[in-house]
Specification:
The complex is a heterodimer. Chain A is α+β, with helices and mostly antiparallel strands. Helix content of chain A is 52%, strand content 14%. Chain A folds into three domains: 77 residues, Butyryl-Coa Dehydrogenase, subunit A, domain 1, CATH 1.10.540; 91 residues, Butyryl-CoA Dehydrogenase, subunit A, domain 2; 145 residues, Butyryl-CoA Dehydrogenase, subunit A, domain 3 (Up-down Bundle), CATH 1.20.140.10. In chain A, strand 8 and strand 9 form a beta hairpin. Chain A is globular. Chain B is α+β, with helices and mostly antiparallel strands. Classes of the chains: A alpha+beta, B alpha+beta. At the A-B interface, helix 7, strand 9, helix 8, helix 9 and helix 11 of A face helix 7, helix 8, helix 9 and helix 13 of B. The complex binds flavin-adenine dinucleotide (FAD).
Chain lengths: 357, 386
């Protein structure tokens, strides 16, 4: 029994942390204007992060989600704008569901970072179900897919389609589609509405509803892992401020209205961290347990981080509201995270069903 | 990261299960002699004091096997491994850590054999959360201490044989944590007066304990004179692994789900009500978080990494859940929910109504939620003391 990371994983963690501090600090994150930060992406590829979960046979490193977890947690800490989650989902989807030809073609490109994937599963912002997929699949694709994650920075799009009961994932060249950026709260998580006008997908493969749920769960776990780092970063920022900001002759962190809220943040982060690690373990080792584990983690994190984002700003006073101060960036991430891959209500209801109600 | 156990650990789990299958009859089948026999059998296996050193009769078991043992026992709904609950929880570990050899020989076997009951004399009328400020006085006279003062909320005092008593031997000290001395005192010592206090559930488990010129031999001092605070801290820290607890809470969640399944509200199944379902999801997330927090902290211990005060995280969850789950059950079932055992309309025999009056044992005893938050804020986050 060992519910912790290995020495190698801890080294990887340090490597990502160093990258985020040196190459991708918040000043760089803020300077992004919607395109893919090519140089950073190349570095991430060179460091092997895009290849982590791609099998060795397809040019990857053949590690697991638990290794990827370390990368997501640390890149989340610095609100990395790189489309790491979409890339990981594309690798997972193709590795799990595509035929051998498609795997041989696409997985090496994903591992090398030559293909940059955006992912669009559901068409409806509040309906996580195969029935909510409206884009119809066929030899050519016509229609609009809204909310495609990272579509604006991608070279390729992985889109879910449905014809009757038949679900398929299509790989589309982003240049064949009309991608309209969708302005949203968190600029580090770009997405776009994608319009297809009779274009031919580069590849297409069937998936089951279980596969769809699996991918959604992987997405939920991935963004929760990012959320751990991000939430810890706000907690650190706010704790530090509370130690130094003097009001009524004392550091505000001496007052329980402040310090107890920070303690509660710690409790919540520790808790959704444990749940997210457990869900990550389930992706690798116990797919049957994944739905429940993913739902518990994502549900807890959605509500807890949302509140942490708000209080991270609020506990700073007015300076927290300024554009210049970083607390607001985390609040924006927390709002995005709350809805991504299912909100707390969806996941709690699902956990209740899975628990036999 | 893996949840697999070594072959030895798996074999141990199998051994515990086999033992339980053979030796734990259902509640209805447990006769009069059951408890005595149970205690003897688990003692023979050296499962009592599982991680304590062998030389004093302990099991010298590993932390992981201890966790397995607790989990299996809780899963099976087994009774405790001994009746000397505080002896096993912290008095014994405190004596093992700070006691003289003579004290270990004298006290440990009786705790393991469930021969003596201990109670804990820490809190005083004017000093609860601020425990280090206690004033009960112990004055050294020859080879005795003479104790005068009062303790309160002393759980088990009405039937305990011994008390682990926190006294003050020095009043002129720079830090209130200095000058505290820990004494082990027989409850039948002349000058001890126990007055039970009834709690809101109608039980009389705790008491006021008065000390008037009580003589305690110097050899009954645990640790050095004036260094009793260290003993106390270690005893509070000994409430660590919450694994058995989590198993019980999962069982309680299942009971709550059954209650939901059999309940209608406004003529409709409660199980279809999204608000109800959501609450159950929230409970499950918190209990699961406790489980996996516990495993992360256990991993740290196994790896020899320092643990700070992370156990306060689970204590806070536990405190919230203890209140909320019972409260939810009572509210869910309307006026039937408030019926106590004995009422023909009581829900699940009045279980929920009754335990909705019991949370202070968990929530207040052992450090209130505010104190746990202070611990996290100050020791882990490094915020200033208030
Ligand atoms: C069922 C039960 C069993 C017990 N058994 C024992 C026992 O066997 N032996 C024993 O020695 N004691 C026992 N206790 C006592 C227990 O340890 C104390 O009740 C506890 O430490 C709190 O002390 P207090 O009751 O004096 O409350 P106080 O310390 O007076 O606290 C009152 C309120 O003020 C809050 N408060 C206090 N200080 C602060 C602060 N710094 N910041 C913010 N809020 C604060 C507390 O959170 C609480 O809500 C038991 C208590 C209960 C309820």
């Amino acid at each position: 029994m060992d519910f912790g990371f290995t020495d190698e994983q801890n080294l990887l963690r340090e490597q990502v942390l160093r990258f985020m501090t040196d190459a991708c600090p918040l000043s760089v994150v803020r300077a992004q204007n919607g395109g893919l930060p090519r140089e950073l992406w190349q570095q991430a590829a060179d460091l092997g992060w895009l290849a982590l979960i791609v099998p060795e046979a397809h040019g990857g490193i053949g590690l697991k989600w638990v290794d990827l977890a370390v990368v997501l947690e640390e890149s989340g800490r610095g609100l990395s704008p790189l489309p790491l989650v979409s890339q990981a989902l594309a690798a997972t989807a193709i590795g799990r569901c595509a035929g051998d030809d498609a795997k041989s073609e696409w997985l090496p490109k994903i591992a090398a970072g030559d293909a940059v994937f955006g992912v669009g599963l559901y068409d409806d912002a509040t309906w996580i179900d195969a029935e909510g997929i409206r884009l119809s699949g066929g030899a050519t694709l016509t229609g609009t897919k809204p909310f495609v994650s990272d579509a604006t920075v991608a070279t390729h799009l992985l889109l879910a389609t449905r014809t009757g009961r038949e679900l398929r994932l299509a790989i589309v060249d982003a240049e064949d589609a009309t991608v309209t950026a969708q302005a949203s709260i968190d600029r580090t998580k770009p997405f776009g509405s994608t319009t297809l006008d009779g274009i031919e997908p580069l590849a297409m493969f069937p998936i089951s509803t279980d596969d769809l749920a699996y991918l959604t769960d992987c997405g939920a776990v991935a963004v929760t892992l990012e959320g751990i780092g991000a939430a810890e970063a706000v907690l650190a920022l706010t704790t530090d401020y509370a130690k130094n900001r003097i009001q009524f002759d004392n550091p505000i962190g001496k007052y329980q209205g402040v310090k107890h809220r920070l303690a509660d943040m710690f409790v919540d982060i520790e808790s959704f961290k444990s749940l997210a690690y457990c869900a990550t373990w389930a992706i690798d080792n116990a797919p049957d347990e994944l739905p429940r584990a993913a739902s518990l983690a994502k549900a807890y994190a959605s509500d807890a981080f949302a509140r942490i984002g708000i209080d991270g700003v609020g506990l700073h006073g007015a300076i927290g509201f300024t554009a210049e101060y970083d607390a607001q960036l985390y609040l924006k991430r927390s709002k995005w995270l709350r809805s991504a891959f299912g909100d707390a209500d969806y996941h709690y209801q699902r956990a209740a069903s899975l628990g036999g109600l | 990261m893996d949840f697999d156990f070594t072959p030895e650990e798996q074999a141990f789990r199998a051994e515990v299960r086999e033992f339980l299958a053979e030796n734990l009859p259902s509640r209805a089948e447990r006769g009069r002699g059951f408890m005595g026999e149970w205690l003897r059998k688990v003692r023979d296996r050296r499962w009592v004091g599982f991680s304590w050193p062998e030389e004093y009769g302990g099991g010298a078991g590993s932390l992981t096997e201890q966790a397995i043992l607790k989990e299996e026992m809780a899963l099976a709904g087994a009774p405790p491994l001994g009746t000397s609950s505080m002896g096993l929880a912290w008095v014994g570990p405190g004596i093992i850590q700070y006691g003289t050899d003579e004290q270990k020989q004298r006290f440990i076997p009786d705790i393991l054999d469930s021969k003596v009951n201990w109670c804990t004399g820490y809190s005083e009328p004017n000093h609860g959360s601020d425990l280090a400020a206690i004033q009960t006085k112990a004055e050294r006279v020859g080879d005795h201490y003479v104790v005068n003062g009062q303790k309160i909320w002393t759980t088990g005092a009405p039937w305990a044989d011994w008390i682990i008593l926190l006294t003050r031997t020095a009043f002129e000290v720079e830090r209130k944590h200095d000058g505290i001395t820990c004494l082990l005192v027989p409850m039948d010592s002349p000058g001890i007066d126990v007055r039970p206090i009834e709690n809101m559930a109608g039980d009389r488990n705790f008491a006021e304990v008065f000390f008037t010129d009580v003589q305690v031999p110097v050899e009954n001092r645990l640790g050095e004179e004036g260094k009793g605070w260290a003993v106390t801290i270690s005893s509070l820290a000994n409430e660590r692994s919450s694994i058995g607890e989590v198993t019980q809470m999962f069982a309680k969640l299942e009971a709550l789900k059954n209650l939901v399944r059999s309940t209608k509200r406004q003529g409709k199944p409660a199980a279809d009500d999204p608000a109800v379902r959501r609450r159950l999801g929230e409970f499950e997330a918190k209990i699961a978080a406790m489980k996996y927090n516990g495993l992360r902290y256990l991993t740290k211990q196994l790896r020899g990494e320092p643990l700070s005060s992370e156990t306060s995280v689970n204590k806070l969850h536990r405190a919230n859940l203890e209140i909320e789950m019972d409260d939810f059950a009572v509210e869910l079932t309307g006026l039937a929910g408030v019926q106590l055992p004995g009422s023909d309309e009581a829900v699940d025999g009045g279980r929920w109504a009754r335990s909705s009056l019991g949370w202070p044992s968990v929530v207040i005893g052992g450090g209130t939620p505010n104190i746990q938050r202070n611990i996290i804020a100050e020791r882990i986050l490094g915020l200033p003391k208030d």
